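Posted in: Protein Modeling Q&A

I'm a second-year student putting together a small comparison for a lab meeting, and my supervisor asked me to include a predicted structure for Cytoplasmic protein. I've never done this before, so apologies if this is the wrong subforum. The sequence is pasted below exactly as I got it from our records. If anyone can share the structure token output, I'd also love a short note on what stands out.
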Amino acid sequence: MGLFDKFKDQFHSSSPSYDFPSAHQPIPLGPNAVFRYRQQRGVNLGSWFSLERWICESVFRNAIQPGQSDFDVASGRDAKRVLEEHWDTWIGDDDWKWIRDKGFNSVRIPISYYHLCGPLPEVLKGTDFEPFHHIFEGAWGRIKRAIETAGYHGLGVLIDLHGAAGAQNNDAHAGMSKGKVGFWDKHSNLASTSLALRFLASELCHIPHVVGLELLNEPANNSKLQGWYKSTIEEIRSIVPSDFPLYISDAWDTGHYAWFVGQHVDTQAQNSVVLDHHLYRCFTDQDKNKSGYQHASELRGQFQSDLKGQSDAAKRSMVVGEWSASLDPHSFGHVPDGEKDAQRREFVKAQLELFEAHTAGYWFWTYKKGDGWDAGWSARDASRAEILPSWVGGKMFKGPPPQGVKEHEQNQAHNAHTGYWASHGGSPDPTVFAPGFSQGWDDSLLFLSHPSGTSQIGFISQWMGKRRMEYEAHSGKKLGKATWEWEHGFKQGVEASLRVCTY
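Accepted answer (user: helix_wrangler)
Welcome! Here is the predicted structure, written out as tokens:
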């Protein structure tokens, strides 16, 4: 039986609900919750639904000029057949198996509001895509099947609203080629986006392997965006459980939105908000003048310090939703192809070290391209060139340790903790360190032994916060000033289990 089987009935109800009832309960901490709280190591399934010509040229064959966006394809000849043929063939069984076998544990699927018009015709009202209902009405059924298939393979799914009504940025991947940010211009655009996000959240929140919903991809930053994030999060929280992860783009202002996310984690312990940062080093003149080795060195230097500070501000509720192996041709000069790959290899290695150390996950952009070789942007090509490692899944689980190992590790850690603080003025309550250690160890093993494959805790602040509240409720003891002591034990329990139980 596939991991998705017990949730399959949710996808085949004959009539969708539009009243968005507040009926779903949070997923309790346990195996089902592992998908959302583990370290995410994934790929983007770019240009499957939200199209980009540079990734898949063939689907634009009948598009009107300038021929860069979904709008141009939908306006062209035979658009319904062209799109449905593409949706049905871009990702197949061999692709899902490749993703899983390389150690990736999740996929990020970019979609747009018009892909929801089959069950939700109102989403097109007053928008640029209103005439195209008949063209996109079959998309949502295919998106549901994609989510289902990912579950069969043990993969988590992050659904990303890549294109909002009016376009939230001036890139064609937001759906329009006109190069204008029209998202804020009309009430109908905001209404469509609100409807789309509420629909998606209510449909997806009960499926454990859906790891979250991204509210907007790369929105242009302005004085309205933070207020929109706040009100939209509150609106969605009124209809779905507060533990359903909502991802927000940093809008290229990482420090500010790291603080914003950190405030949510601080003030609403049950509220799961995640910051998405996109990291590319191939577009600016400054980046073009540096080699792959120089970029790698910078990522291990000041940039690492900056990213750690931002991740800490976000309580490590931060991911890199897009990154790549791509460098501008100017970065290489006139070196041979083998040297170019060597530079990309070091660049990728530095990025992976950075993400593993300081974020809760990352998704490579993109899984594949339609034509030609591109080891910078295609994960499949980068893997063939050994630029991406052959296994990206992190450490492997050895199996449960022999009896008595946990107790030995816990006693050693407890004695070191109490001994240190006894000679440094004491601590609030040394008795809570061991329960924290024990819980951290057990939870780490829960992740490591997960049936979808070896996992490790990624969103540790959120998971640990919920476990701490359980401990307080069950023990009848409010930790107060001793909170840090229990959490210190929890983190040491996790670290010890990884050291002992993995290779």
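A couple of things worth pointing out for your meeting: The chain has 18 helices and eight strands. The chain has two domains: 5-11+38-384, 405-501.
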